[in-house]
Amino acid sequence: MAAAVRPKSRLAISLLKTSPPPPPDQILSICRAAALSPDSHLDRVALSLAASKLSSAPDSLRDLASSLIPHHAPHAIALYGQAGLLPDAISTFKSSPSTRSLNALLFACLVSGNHAEAARVFQTFPDAHFVRPNTETFNTIIKSFAESGTTRSFYSVLDEMCKKGVKPTAATFTTAIAGFYKEERFDDVGKVIELMKKHRCGETLPVFNVRVQGLCKIGRSGEAKALLNQMMKKGIKPNWLTYNHLIYGFCKEGDLEEAMRLYKEMAKKGLVGDSRFYFTLVYYLCKGGDFDAAVGVYNDVAARNWVPCFSTMKMLVNGLAGSSRVDEAKGIIEKMKEKFPDRAEAWKEVEEALPQ
Where does the record place its PPR repeats (predicted)? Predict the structure, then answer.
């Protein structure tokens, strides 16, 4: 059954991604034709895309969500949140209260950026609607506090978890760590790490990755690199995400030399990132004028069937042309036209603008 539905789901995603976006009534027709159900991952992706496109057409979004409410109320709640229709999300929760619906409502508050409402829901709804919060409930509200600059509320949430017999997970602590780094409360980071040990959530790779990312985001990539060395001494092997955070961190701080040193180290370890990782690195190298390194990174992944960012590749081509490497620039344009014929016209314009 799932195999039969998948082509319809893929087609729906493709149609919903068209630019300009289809009109609201057509979006609803696409979703209905594909018979989308939140039981399938691909269908959830399609529904999420539809909700984001319908955020300016609330009545159409209500039509889409209402078809889900009888059997998939939590997903309808999440879609309302995505479209910024929190009153609808709340009324849907009240018509079908459950732990899953409560978690979906907190998520809806998060995606709509309404952290004050998330706090109100968390504090009053479980008792008012006889719903028992679980680990996901607590982790979601901690994420809300971390995103809204009030991470110190984490301590009272953790106390409440313990009183209610809800076991914290690594995510409970790493979410707080990310928030404290964002707020540059380094003493609190240390306290949370100690609490992790107390709750037997040790220093694992995901924990180190959150710490590395947190430091890189606030321009302290040198300290993040020291953490990399520390984790390796403890026998914890970094993955490509560890290097992803570090390389972006050094790029943003303008240290392209260190970024490329780490990139080569990552390659030696046989670690491979996703397409966004490589093309973002190409972007930063072009921005810094290091077109040799940018071409090297591009060549490393050119054989993969990844769709590069047009503006990044245009930046690389123009940079090469501006460095008297017009033939090389034209060679890349030819590859782009051959691999992505739908953008051939745009690449033709770029080629015509190059120095002859």
Answer: 134-168, 204-238, 239-273, 274-308
What is the pLDDT at residue 6? Answer: 67
d(CA 248, CA 273): 13
Q: Cα–Cα distance between 90 and 40 in angstroms, integer?
A: 25
DSSP string for residues in 212-242: HHHHHHTT-HHHHHHHHHHHHHTTPPP-HHH
pTM (two decimals): 0.84
pLDDT of residue 8: 87
Q: For residue 133, give both structure tokens.
A: 């919060």
Spell out, as residue ranges, where the chain has pLDDT lower than 70.
1-6
Q: What is the pLDDT of residue 299?
A: 93
The three-class DSSP label of residue 311 is helix
CA-to-CA distance for 92 and 101, rounded, in angstroms?
9
Q: Judge whether 145 and 157 are in contact, CB under 8 Å.
A: yes
Dump pLDDT digits (tens) for 65-89: 988 887 899 999 999 999 999 999 9
Tokens of 183: 């707020």
Residue-range domain boundaries for the chain: 1-13+23-132, 203-273, 290-356
**In sequence order, what are the residues at sequence separation of 6 or more whose Cβ sits closer than 8 angstroms to the Cβ of residue 177?**
189, 192, 193, 207, 210, 211, 214
SS3 of 339-350: the string is HCHHHHHHHHHH
| DSSP line for 249-263 | HHHHTT-HHHHHHHH
Specify the residue for token string 């921005």: 287
Please state, in angstroms and rounded to a whole number, the distance separating the CA atoms of residues 265 and 53.
41
pLDDT digits (tens, 9 = 90+) for 242-287: 999 999 999 999 999 999 999 999 999 999 999 999 999 999 999 9
* Residues whose CB falls within 8 Å of the CB of residue 169, separated by 6 or more in sequence, listed in order: 135, 139, 201
Q: Say if residue 194 is exposed, middle or buried (CB neighbours under 10 Å; 0-12, 13-18, 19+).
A: exposed
Instruction: State the pLDDT at residue 326.
Output: 92
